[in-house]
Amino acid sequence: MELLKLIIFAALRALPARARGLDPSRQVVRARGFPGPLPRALRARGGSETTLQRGGPAWTEAQRAAFEADGFVLQPDVLSEEECAALRATYDGLFRGEFDTKIYPDEWHWREGISRPEAFREIVNAWKSSDAVARVALDETIGRRCAELMGWGGARLAQDDVLWKPPGAEGVAHHRDAPYISANFVPEERNSVTVWIALDDADEATGVVEYAPGSHAWADAGAAGVAAASFHDGRGQSPMRAAARAAGVDVEVRRCVVPAGSAVFHHQDVWHGSGENGT
To answer: Which of the 8 DSSP states describes residue 202?
Structure first.
């Protein structure tokens, strides 16, 4: 069984980003908006121009408490069944290089006829290339949910990830998002949140995301030699467990069952990864 997902990394709308090669179109935001102001060619592709309601229901106090305690929380109905199906239908074309805008994404890992069929597939910042991805990655309501959860005045898009885990694909080694997302923005502390959206029903068998609850609050979560773990180096949970030892805490791993259209919102410092797709 395939596992398709879309990940959105949202950043605090605060001080200007560091001059580290980031796309200028992502660095200015409306007071309430997620992406904007968008270039004219993109205004019909996302943000407040859409009439669909995304992002799921308003946060409950129980969800807020779970996020603060665990570093992650499940949110239902972020996307409709119809929109999940529409996004899934674009993945084949995206990985063949069929880009709506004729603009390449920032990264494109996996090539048809060259890469192994069971290899993990990824495209970074597909919002630049795909209208379907842009409509979700640049959605104002999803950005508002991020801001509400983090207590921010607003949010901006930091990055999106289109991910495809076919049967037999390897897992993702445990890591934190802060070293490669939060470090690009100032201030760095509590400045980003990740939205992990399932486009297929995701469970342990297909390699759903898994977390170390409370690890966002570990005293030394970024211990030297730990935070730099590579996603696909085969180390599994080892980097997270090394960080737990450095922090002097016992650790458990919790896997979420994420129905298609639901999402896990998680903190920049929480340790997470996934197993292989064993189907």
So the answer is: B
For the entire predicted model, the pTM comes to 0.85
Distance of CA 145 to the CA centre of its chain: 14
CB count within 10 Å of CB 80 equals 14
Which residues on neighbouring strands pair with residue 231, listed in sequence order? none
Can you tell me the distance from the alpha carbon of 242 to that of 221, in angstroms, rounded to the nearest whole number? 9
Given a contact cutoff of 8 angstroms between Cβ atoms, the answer to whether 173 and 233 are in contact is yes
Dist. CA 268–CA 159, nearest whole Å: 13
> In this model, does residue 190 exceed pLDDT 60?
yes
Sequence-distant (6+) residues with CB within 8 A of 155 are 10, 11, 12, 13, 29, 34, 143, 144, 146, 147, 193
Confidence at residue 28, expressed as pLDDT on a 0 to 100 scale: 32
Q: What is the DSSP letter of 159?
A: E
Spatial separation of the C-alpha atoms in residues 273 and 210, rounded to whole Å: 6
CB atoms within 10 A of CB 61: 7
With b meaning 16 or more CB within 10 Å and e meaning fewer, what string describes 214-225?
bbbbbeebebee
CA distances from 222 to 18, 31, 61, 246 (A): 21, 32, 29, 9
Q: Write phi, then psi, for 123 (nearest 5 degrees).
A: -130, 130
Measure the CA angle with vertex 208, ends 229 and 259; round to 5°: 145
In whole angstroms, how large is the CA radius of gyration of the chain? Answer: 18
